[in-house]
Every structure is written in C-alpha cells, then in structure tokens.
Design brief:
By secondary structure, the protein is of the alpha+beta class. Helix content is 18%, strand content 31%. Helix 4 crosses helix 12 and helix 10 runs parallel beside helix 11 (492-502).
Length: 649
C-alpha cells in the first residue's frame, strides 16, 4: 500500500534575498512556453513593497502584485488557448519585456543519465541533428546544482529547437516532444530538462517528505547542520564515527555475541576462507558478513605478543579475538590493503581461541583475505619465535546488517548531488510553481539493490512533487529501467522494476516498458526515439484523448492447476510470444526452486509448465537482470518482468 504524504511546510521558491532591481525567475525568458488554459504563476523579485505589473499581450488587463518584505512577488495569469507568439511585460520601476512567448503544453523531463543523455552523445547522431526542424518545440535546460537549502532560482535557459540546441538536449525528452508535436498540430510544446546522471531518487525528494519516512534522518541532520554553518559536519572522522555507531546498533552481531565464544552454530554456514561474497552464494549483497573460527596456538607462544595478518578486506572490517577488538579499518579505499593487527599476549587464552571478523562491504565484490590476484594467506604470527599458524580453511559465516538498512558511508566530500534532498533543493525547487501539464521521468538504475526501499521512495517523491506544485495528481509518466547485466545480480534489478510497476497504484501515472530495446552490456541503451514514443503514447492516450494502445501486456491473473500455470493479461489484444526459444519463463513448486519453463499462447492465455515441476506454485518472467521481454501485444508493446509469488529470496 502506498502511504499518502501529510501536508508539508516547505520553503517557498519566492523566499530569496531582497533585491532592489526588478528581476524574473529564470523560468521566464524569451521563447518560453506557458501552459495553456490555466492559472500560470509568474514570479520574481523587486524592491520590498514594490508594486509589480505583469501585462501579457493576449489580455487588455495587467495583473498586479506586490513584493513582500524580502522582495519576492508573484502574479497569477489566466492563460488562453494554445497560440502565440505573445509578449509578456513586467514593470516595477523599470520594464522587462519577454518576446516570442508561446502558450501550449509544458512537460518536465527529469531523472538520471538516461534522461540526461543528449542527442549529440550518440556516435551517429550528426545527420539526425542537422535535419531537425521542429518549430513547435521550445527547449528549456535547468543547470546542474545541488544545495543544502531550497533555492529560489537556478541557471535556466529557454530557446528554440534548433539543431544546435537539440544536440545538447535530452534525447528522450526531444523524441517525446516531437511525437506530441506530430500528433497535436499547431500545439506549442515546452520541454524543461532537469536531469543529472548517476543520481538516486532520494536526492530528488524534499527533506520534509523524506523526514516522514525516517530512513534518511541522519543524513538530513547533517544537511541541516551544514545549512546552519556548523563546522562539525565537515569533520569526516566525526561523520564516520556516527556511521559506525549506527551500524553497531543495526547489526545483530555484537548484541548476540558473534565476536566471542558461544552463541551456538545456528544460522552459521561453513565456508572456505579466503573468499569472495559471490562464492558464498551472496550475489551482490552489500552490508555486513561475519566470519568466525576457532584456533589453537603452540604452547611455547604463551605470554608472547602476536601479530594477526588476515589479509585484505573489501571494503572495511572490525576484528576480534575472544571478544576483544584487536584491529579495524573503518575508512574507505583500503579494500586491497592487507591488514596486520597487533595481538597483546593477554588477549589469548589456553586451548581454543575464537577469531571473529565483521567484513563491511558497501558496493561491488565483498571479500575476506583476498588480493588483487586471488586468495591470499591468512595467518597469526609470533615474531619473537618466527613462527606462524595458517588460518586459511573452513570458517563459519553468516550475514549481518544489509547496506539498505544503513545510510551511505560518509566521505570528506559527503555533500554531493546524491545527498538526500540535494537535487530537490537545487533543481526542482526553482521550478515550483511553474504551471505545466506533467512530468516524464527516467531513473532507477542508481537505486538497483534497494527495490524494497524504492517501493516507498518513488511514490513518495511523486506525491512530494505534486504537493509542492499545488497541481493535484498532475500526470507523472516514467520509463521502467531496461535490461542490463548488473554484476552479480540475483533479482535486484527485477525488484527495482517491480517497485516501479507497483507505483502505478498512484492516480494519473503510467509506465513505459522498454524491456525489448535494452542492451545487456550498456546501461545507456540507444533507441531513445522509441523510448520517447512510448512515453508519448501515455500522454496522448491519457491526457489528449487519442485512441491509442499505450501499454504492453500486464499480468492480470494466475491459476495453477494440474502441472501448469495459466496466466491472463490486460492490454493483451494480439498476445504473442516472439522468437522460437528463450522466453525467460521459470516455474517453481513448493520447494521454491525455479526451473526453466516452456511457454505458449493458447486461447489468449500464456500456458507455462516444466517437466521438472509436477505441481507448480509460482511463475516468474524475465526475472534476470539482462533478460529481454518476448511477450507482446498486437501494438508491438512488450510486457514487463513479473512474478506471481511474493517469496523473499
């Protein structure tokens, strides 16, 4: 269930430093497009208390506003039907006149790199760019900026859709706009690109909205402290110490005594160490993995100081002997640095000693005792006697806290475009409350691995934007992430896609599925023209009343009887499986072990079965990270990945 956001107190975009000179928000410039047939706010700054007159050429009357004590003013214009060009004159002591203002449809284009991806970034784009002739389109670009406070303005530029301007504009946004222009003759289309590659959804969400979930409070506290000018937030060691304290609270290991003798064998698996997490069946797991083993030392080592050399750990570790911490690496960047920890003689006990290592991996391949060339030698040395005990071999291991339970590890440059709320402040707030039709969004790759969290964050961001804009339930359409071979994926990408699909429970939303046009070796697939078209299908059908098929097949029901599954779909006219083999269906019984399955279309249903599963209980489709969809309707739109189960595996 999607939790509704409560009313939020927000910093108005009109709250800015006083200015004696009249100026407009960067959202207002020559060649701009205003949303048609609505109330369109126009805002800016002037001397405190100044009378401001806003006169559009389509009206005989000016709209009057008064600057507040901070110099901020706002005038609400009633806009006419689509047309133009018009002028817009703003007067307060001096007059600013905007030329070539059109009235039509405005769409915000936002997200990460696949939305930011410029037309000119394609190797073979020159001919396409030089042939561009789209007089209905106007392009607006919001400059990249992250901020610890809600900004009143930004670096924003409007312009005609010339080949040069289009070359540096979002390819997805351009193709979306061109599709609208072709389907809506004489309709000016304004496209506002506010995107930044490699960014996470929480960066695009306001602090107030994120506070409601409580998942980023520590990071937001740091942002607030930075905003207040406290120097403490720039002390990396203090940030790291706070992060480790929170880790020890979240991880069950210390409370359960995993770092010392006792605790029993339950929950532990035997593994060969040195190892990589992937070799333990953990896939791309990020977080804490505990390793433990008993060992004995020669009697002649009694009373002597020792050196523990467990090798390198990826990324960080804390290491104990008999519950006493003997060493740790609690900073990033030392994943290939071999550890050597001094072990005082008093640490050891006669007989069996317990060595425990908590390895903390924050991304990529987690390891213990691993070197750049493979497994290393783990040992305990007695320097005085020049003797050693080899520790390679069978250890017990178990998972601790997951990285998704924690906030990102802090760094010296911790405040970046990916800090929670940073882009909401810098690249969304300056646009509010500009009147527009809706938003197209292409993001999610940077949140892969946090699908369960994305189920909350993504709809939360949409509700946050809608609340702040004051345009209830404006259309919000997104691109589902494409197939791509994420390293060591065990379903994380599919769960992110699933989280995106679940967000369709919000009103006036839509999803463009592109699982047939991804690239398993390139996270930035081509075919941006097809992506733009599929987004445009959503808008044309849902907002402009055109009779179009806008969705591929979506799972409706699943029935398991005899030895097969029968799946029915919505949006399934002309349902077909394309290709003769490799349809990416898998099926499982009560044992939850999935087997490759045969699939066929019969009577408008997909029938799935496997000789290896006599009594099926669950079906999954295209669940691999790089799996392409083979299930289509007659309109040539494909199905998303899906599953009939809700098993946690």
């Amino acid at each position: 269930m999607v939790r509704l956001l409560l009313p939020i107190l927000l910093v108005s975009p009109l709250c800015a430093s006083p200015s004696q000179d009249l100026r407009l928000s960067g959202m207002f410039a020559d060649h701009m497009v205003l949303q048609r047939e609505t109330t369109a706010p126009v805002w800016g700054w002037a001397a405190a208390g100044a009378e401001v007159s806003v006169k559009p050429s389509w009206s005989a009357e000016a709209v009057l506003a008064k600057a507040d004590g901070e110099g901020a003013w706002r005038a609400d214009l009633s806009t006419p039907k689509a047309g133009g060009p018009y002028t817009l004159s703003v007067t307060a002591g001096k007059t600013i006149t905007l030329e070539d203002v059109m009235v039509g449809e405005v769409w915000i284009c936002s997200g990460q790199s696949n939305m930011e991806w410029h037309l000119s970034w394609f190797a073979d784009a020159t001919a396409t760019i030089n042939s561009i002739d789209e007089p209905q389109l106007r392009l607006c670009t919001v400059g990249k900026a992250f901020s610890d406070t809600a900004k009143g303005d930004a670096s924003i530029s409007w312009g005609l859709c010339t080949p040069a301007a289009a070359a540096d504009f979002s390819a997805v946004g351009f193709h979306f706009g061109r599709e609208l222009a072709q389907a809506l003759p004489d309709m000016p289309i304004g496209l506002v690109m506010t995107a930044w590659g490699g960014t996470v959804v929480e960066a695009w969400t306001s602090e107030a909205a994120l506070r409601l979930g409580g998942e980023f409070d520590s990071a937001l506290d740091l942002v607030a402290a930075r905003r207040a000018g406290h120097s403490l937030v720039d002390n990396a060691k203090s940030l790291e110490s706070s992060w480790w304290n929170e880790l020890f609270k979240q991880d069950p290991g210390l409370a359960a005594g995993w770092n010392r003798a006792g605790g029993g064998p339950d929950g532990w698996d035997n593994v060969d160490v040195p190892t990589q997490f992937v070799n333990m069946g953990l896939g791309s797991f990020d977080g804490c993995v505990w390793f433990r083993r008993g060992f004995e030392v020669p009697p002649n080592w009694a009373g002597k100081d020792l050196v523990l050399a467990p090798g390198a750990m990826d990324d960080m570790d804390v290491t104990w002997i008999n519950g006493i911490e003997v060493g740790s690496v609690r900073e990033m960047g030392k994943y290939l640095t071999a550890r050597e920890y001094a072990v005082p003689a008093a640490t050891m006990v006669p007989g069996t000693n317990v060595l425990a290592v908590m390895v903390v991996d924050t991304g990529g391949a987690g390891t213990i005792g691993w070197t750049a060339s493979g497994p290393g030698t783990m040992e305990l040395r007695c320097p005085e006697l020049d003797q050693r005990v080899i520790l390679n071999g069978t250890w017990a291991a178990r998972r601790g806290a997951e990285a998704t339970d924690l906030e990102p590890f802090p760094r010296n440059d911790w405040f970046t475009q990916n800090t929670p709320s940073a882009l909401s402040n810098g690249m969304i707030e300056p646009l509010i409350p500009f009147a527009m039709r809706g938003v197209i969004w292409y993001q999610g790759e940077s949140n892969v691995g946090r699908g369960a969290q994305y189920q909350r964050l993504f709809p939360g961001m949409i509700q946050d934007w809608r609340h702040r804009w004051g345009q209830a339930d404006f259309p919000f359409y997104w691109v589902q992430i494409a197939p791509f071979g994420y390293a060591e994926d065990t379903g994380q990408a599919a769960r992110l896609r699933e989280a995106q699909s679940m967000t369709l429970s919000l009103p006036h939303t839509g999803q463009a599925v592109i699982m047939d046009i991804g690239n398993p070796t390139d996270i930035h697939p081509g075919n941006k023209d097809k992506v733009g078209r599929r987004l445009a299908l959503l808008a044309l059908a849902k907002d402009y009343g055109q009779d179009l098929v806008w969705s591929g097949p979506t799972l409706s029901t699943s029935v398991f009887e005899d030895s097969q599954a029968q799946l029915t779909f919505d949006h399934a006219v002309g349902l077909e499986l394309r290709g003769s083999t490799g349809h990416k269906f898998v099926i499982a019984g009560e044992d939850r072990v999935f087997h490759p399955a045969e699939a066929r279309v019969e009577g408008g249903k997909v029938i799935v079965s496997s000789a290896s599963v006599a009594s099926p209980k669950a079906v999954r489709f295209a669940w691999g990270a790089a799996d392409a969809s083979s299930l289509f309707n007659a309109a040539g739109l494909c199905a998303s990945s899906f599953r009939t189960d809700q098993w946690n595996d």
